[in-house]
């Protein structure tokens, strides 16, 4: 039995997908007819329900991959292939505090909110009001809005939050905001960046090398699917290749300058040379 408020994924016999939230007495309208949410809830996950036109739909519990692919977008979103590596590299987990800038449609924000859990928090900044509102709707739709605090603000004036465990910037000129990093994250925190072109990456690397950062890494992630046919196993004709460069760096707090020890000036005194003992030859001559 699926409880009201839970997310479900409906898949038709043609592979069409519908991401919905269970509402008592609700309905789902498809090209194959109408589905009653009460019937879906009673059937449960992994079962089939039929529309009023007798078309069967599979009921599944959506994964994070499903949620991100189902984001309603007005911008390009980050692909799951980058998100998986990013989460591990930034060390995102239950209880983490993450600051993100460049919310866009909220694809990465959704993943961050998923991983930080109810004990963590995501602070996401977006300067454009239309994207700010869209991301909020997407987060509400998947039931993760309570883990996210949205800020409709340009980060040119700095961040409103500090002490984060990780930082991720998806903005055009991230090198301009590097001076704000020390006031934003804890020492040793990982910082990540997404950029589409090599000249932007070069500019960012110059900024990172001049600042308190270590463990620099630049990479792109390519993925190639294969046709799942045992007797004709071969790569797909198309692949998701370059979608962006990921750059990572660890913020290292600059050591505080230690005062030089004060050396007291010594008072020089005139030294009196010691009288050298007479040699044995001189003593014999005197005798």
Describe this structure as you would to a colleague.
The chain has 287 residues and is an alpha/beta fold. It is 23% helix and 25% strand. It contains 7 helices and 13 strands. The strands form 3 sheets. The protein has a 7-stranded mixed β-sheet with strand order 9-8-7-10-11-13-12, sandwiched between helices. Strands 2-1-6-5 form a 4-stranded antiparallel β-sheet, covered by helices on one side. Strands 3-4 form a two-stranded antiparallel ribbon. α5 links the parallel β8 (121-125) and β9.
Topology, element by element:
Layout: E1 7-11, E2 17-21, E3 27-30, E4 33-36, H1 37-43, E5 48-50, E6 56-60, H2 64-69, H3 80-90, E7 97-101, H4 107-116, E8 121-125, H5 129-141, E9 148-151, E10 164-169, E11 185-195, H6 198-209, E12 213-219, E13 245-251, H7 280-286
Parallel strand pairs: 7-8, 7-10, 8-9, 10-11
Antiparallel strand pairs: 1-2, 1-6, 3-4, 5-6, 11-13, 12-13
- End-to-end separation: 126 Å
Based on the coordinates given, report the CATH architecture of the largest domain. Answer: 3-Layer(aba) Sandwich
Content-based structural category: alpha/beta
How are strands sequenced across the largest beta sheet? 9-8-7-10-11-13-12
Are there runs of 5+ residues with pLDDT below 50, and where?
279-287
Shape: globular
Average pLDDT score: 90
């Amino acid at each position: 039995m699926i409880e009201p408020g839970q997310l479900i994924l409906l898949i038709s016999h043609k592979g069409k997908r519908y991401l919905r939230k269970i509402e008592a007495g609700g309905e789902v309208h498809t090209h194959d007819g109408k589905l009653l949410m009460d019937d879906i809830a009673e059937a449960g996950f992994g079962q089939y329900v039929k529309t009023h036109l007798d078309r069967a739909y599979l009921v599944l519990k959506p994964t994070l991959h499903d949620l991100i692919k189902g984001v309603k977008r007005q911008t390009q979103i980050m692909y799951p292939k980058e998100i998986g590596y990013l989460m591990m590299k930034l060390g995102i987990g239950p209880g983490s505090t993450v600051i993100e800038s460049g919310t866009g449609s909220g694809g990465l924000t959704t993943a961050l909110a998923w991983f930080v859990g109810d004990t963590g928090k995501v602070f996401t900044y977006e300067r454009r009001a239309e994207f700010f509102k869209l991301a909020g709707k997407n987060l509400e739709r998947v039931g993760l809005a309570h883990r996210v605090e949205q800020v409709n603000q340009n980060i040119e004036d700095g961040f409103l939050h500090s002490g984060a465990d990780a930082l991720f910037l998806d903005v055009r000129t991230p090198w301009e905001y590097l001076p704000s990093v020390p006031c934003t994250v804890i020492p040793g925190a990982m910082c990540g960046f997404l950029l589409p072109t090599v000249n932007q990456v070069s500019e960012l690397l110059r900024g990172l090398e001049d600042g308190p950062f270590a463990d620099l890494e630049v990479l792109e992630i390519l993925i190639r699917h294969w046709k799942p046919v045992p007797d004709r196993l071969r790569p797909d004709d198309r692949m998701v290749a370059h979608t962006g460069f990921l750059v990572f760096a660890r913020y290292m707090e600059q050591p505080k300058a230690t005062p030089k020890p004060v050396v007291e000036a010594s008072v020089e005194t005139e030294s009196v040379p010691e009288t050298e003992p007479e040699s044995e030859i001189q003593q014999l001559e005197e005798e």
